[in-house]
Design brief:
Elements lengths: L1 H19 L7 H8 L3 H13 L3 E4 L4 E4 L1 H7 L8 H16 L2 E8 L2 E8 L14 E3 L4 H8 L3 H11 L12 H14 L2 E4 L6 E9 L5 E10 L8 H33 L1
Antiparallel strand pairs: 1-2, 3-4, 3-8, 4-5, 6-7, 7-8
Length: 265
């Protein structure tokens, strides 16, 4: 029993060391020196943490960083937003303006998940079921969500997913993707030029949560023939306005939930 407790303490020491690291990615020798644990012990514990996704490993550099399971656990005390209630009115407005499908997605692990949606009445439209998971590197929402992640998360996503090719326009080169993500951060939006599905274009923008952190992405999706490059400058102001409105609605919902919790407590 004592050995089991000691193993837990050692694993927590490693996680705390990774959380304190200013460089995000840390090698086994550095972790061994920082925690006073033998290299063999550090390696064994890291293998378990990697398997459970509390830690991720860059196979190229053989260095480690905090993984998605750790981030989910860190946020477990926060109530998951009721995204359909929060975002659907704004998504419907976006549909009225664009005549195209409007989606809201959040990041889970190495994928984007659609959590809210509004559809136009026209016959030819883009349809993605709620709960569908899509890659981060080749979708509008996915690229937005990935662009605003810490560098350790971006690097681990690239290393773990391998940037699979779906169409001729899919970005599969890590350096090119990093440049694309930097451009997204500078301009405040992303465009998917048929990178996951040929003939489909998507325009996406970030949704902000507490402390200015990007927590979701809102998008307009439609056939490339309708959602062409000439419409993007026209739709962008509306998309950014809607993303800001969803951010405000999220803040109001969370403030209301916190007030309710304090009253109940």
């Amino acid at each position: 029993m004592l050995g089991a407790v000691q193993s837990v303490e050692r694993a927590l020491d490693l996680l705390e060391c990774l959380a304190r690291s200013s460089s995000s990615w840390v090698g086994i020798s550095e972790l061994s020196n920082a925690t006073g644990q033998p290299v063999a012990t550090v390696h064994r514990l890291l293998m378990t943490l990697v398997a459970r996704q509390y830690v991720v490993r860059d196979s190229r550099t053989r260095r480690y960083a905090l993984g998605p399971a750790f981030r989910r656990l860190a946020g477990a005390g926060l109530q998951t937003p009721d995204w359909p209630t929060i975002a659907t009115p704004q998504l419907r407005e976006l549909v009225e303006i664009s005549g195209e499908t409007a989606n809201l997605a959040v990041m889970e692990g190495n994928q984007a998940v659609y959590v809210a949606q509004a559809q136009p009445t026209r016959m030819v439209r883009m349809f993605t079921e709620l709960g569908n998971r899509v890659p981060l590197h080749c979708t509008g929402c996915g690229k937005v969500l990935l662009a605003y992640q810490p560098e350790s998360v971006i690097s681990s996503t690239i290393a773990e997913t391998g940037l699979s090719r779906y169409t001729e326009t899919t970005i599969t080169d890590p350096g090119q993707l990093q440049q694309e993500l930097e451009m997204i951060r500078q301009q405040g939006y992303a465009v998917d030029h048929g990178e996951q599905e040929e003939g489909v274009r998507c325009l996406a923008a970030p949704v902000y949560g507490p402390k200015g952190r990007v927590v979701a992405a809102v998008s307009i999706s439609g056939p490339s023939s309708r959602l062409d490059s000439r419409r993007i400058p026209t739709l962008l102001p509306h998309l950014k306005r809607i993303s800001a409105a969803i951010s405000s609605a999220l803040a109001a919902a969370q403030e209301s939930a916190e007030n309710t919790w304090h009253v109940a407590g």
